[in-house]
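Q: Joint fold for the lines below.
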Amino acid sequence: KQIKLAVIAGDGIGKEVVPEALRVLDVVAEIHGGLKFSSTYHPWSSEYYVQHGEMMPKDGLSHLTQSDAIFLGAVGDSSLVADHISLGGLLLKIRREFEQVINIRPAKQLKGIVSPLGNPQNFDIMIVRENSEGEYSSIGGRVHSGEDEIVIQNAVFTKKGVSRVINYAFELAQKRSSHVTSATKSNGIVHSMPFWDEVFKEVAGNYGDVQTNSEHIDALSAFFITKPQTLDVVVASNLFGDILSDIGAAIMGSIGIAPSGNINLNGKYPSMFEPVHGSAPDIFGKGIANPVGQIWTAKMMLDHLGEHEMGRILLDAIEESMQSGIKTADIGGNSSTSEVTDEIIHKLRNK
Amino acid sequence: KQIKLAVIAGDGIGKEVVPEALRVLDVVAEIHGGLKFSSTYHPWSSEYYVQHGEMMPKDGLSHLTQSDAIFLGAVGDSSLVADHISLGGLLLKIRREFEQVINIRPAKQLKGIVSPLGNPQNFDIMIVRENSEGEYSSIGGRVHSGEDEIVIQNAVFTKKGVSRVINYAFELAQKRSSHVTSATKSNGIVHSMPFWDEVFKEVAGNYGDVQTNSEHIDALSAFFITKPQTLDVVVASNLFGDILSDIGAAIMGSIGIAPSGNINLNGKYPSMFEPVHGSAPDIFGKGIANPVGQIWTAKMMLDHLGEHEMGRILLDAIEESMQSGIKTADIGGNSSTSEVTDEIIHKLRNK
Ligand SMILES: CC(C)[C@H](C(=O)O)[C@@H](O)C(=O)O
Ligand SMILES: CC(C)[C@H](C(=O)O)[C@@H](O)C(=O)O
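A: Joint structure:
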């Protein structure tokens, strides 16, 4: 089986961790036997912007459509180009144009990594984030200027978008511990959030076997700290999912380990996999970036491509490596990016 | 000095912890000698709604205007009345009509209380939350129905509102460690948040002695877990401040201990002090509610009324009580609400 990957390393540490994860994927292919990855590399990044005045060529997206998945590092280097341009022109553009309407982000405690909450917490949360609308709408603008300036920002929630992400969460919950928590704020945000609650209730009615609860985003954020082990699938709007997934990364032990998948549901376009961390230009080039986020992201991609067995083995290898103490500084070790990758490959070969 | 308090215990555990905090305030007055509190009690609550069809009388607000401060417990009991009605008709109504445009919420580790992050973390953050506009605007609505339904929610940010809260944060920072962190999300929310950033930059220009940084709300939420001791004053929009303050309460050890003040700046109306926790109807009547949130709220009110020395003594007494192990179950003790209050009063008398 040949898997076509479109690879965009992007900026900063994306350029360090993506090659490491590809090394791991080559070993996965080798172990599997019948699997082969063929990668097409796209140099789209903030540096590309400096040279070409755009984050990707005009026909850039058309180069990605034939791939089975997009494997992304990180985008953004504000010393070269403003974030809203780099992100809007590459990351958010692909998410939107390729209708990657769902963003899935696990917050699961890995063996061998100490949570700031202490060990063992045994939480295993899957955040299902709406990825196409809500608070991230580009609708809005300004009126007056100076001391009178007023800015309106519209959040747009559609029945289609909200029910789609909530349905996805319930389908997922059925394969897990059968519990869905909805992130709301209907006590303070009085149009969009009561609507979200209504749709949640409606969809829940079709999944009588799944337990549910609704929590306001403020309280839910606190629960990620005080009782994360009580959560299973958490479904959230674009903004709330964004916030919860960074909190999830923090309780896992480092933003450097958290993976994510941007899922296209209608089969028209490839899905895209990227770590939750950013490009961290400040640590770029030092060989200290944690490759686990990108490698765990590769595991999510394997799952998505139907290679669950290889995904399982890869996560095991990551956990065994962490347990052996070969870790980067952000999670309390003193190994380099490539040493961590080497160890994961070593564990993988011994499976 | 006579201090007129308007007291609204509200719902659930508000009815338990408010009388406890008033007991403490009486002792404060006694110790001070020259201080006297005269309280007017208002029974406005969800029960009041059941009897009268409204959360407070039509002329309710006029009964509060003559007070020096409003001392509130908690509002909301969804078994009696929907949250958006109880909150909108009492809590949010007072915040808005009385132009309590700033909400201040400390996240400070108290001696004797174990943070879920481990001890000692030594963080001491003051969250300054915009309290009147932003994401909590009531503007918005729905179009179409069924599968085509679309809901628009408007967030409204004004130059006046944003610069006011940011100025407040800088003034406060000058009295503390001279650092302000701004919560933004301008990489994803492209109208309101870049405006917020602009105003922040403009105001910062007037406070050359104060250090600043801007963090996206997702990353900042994680920093509350991974490096809270690096934060001093954090200024945030209505929604972001709401979320951060619950995270702040969680890292302090319990939502049951966090206080807050809703500050009126123009002197036209009283300010209102309330704990961050809600009415928790599920634990009401068991005598296990943590009174520390309400008592620490009384300390904030004392500071606001210019009684800094008494405020300092009261916080010391709270910390000493916690260190002596007399705590409610939410923070690992087995004492009752009144036992904790008694101990705080005992420590207070020994000062
Ligand atoms: C009850 C709710 C409307 C309120 C808010 O979001 O402001 C509460 O969460 C708070 O933080 O005081
Ligand atoms: C970079 C930013 C626009 C993005 C988002 O908020 O979606 C990031 O925080 C993420 O979570 O992938």
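Q: Anything notable?
A: Chain B has two domains: 1-105+257-351, 115-252. The radius of gyration of chain B is 20 Å.
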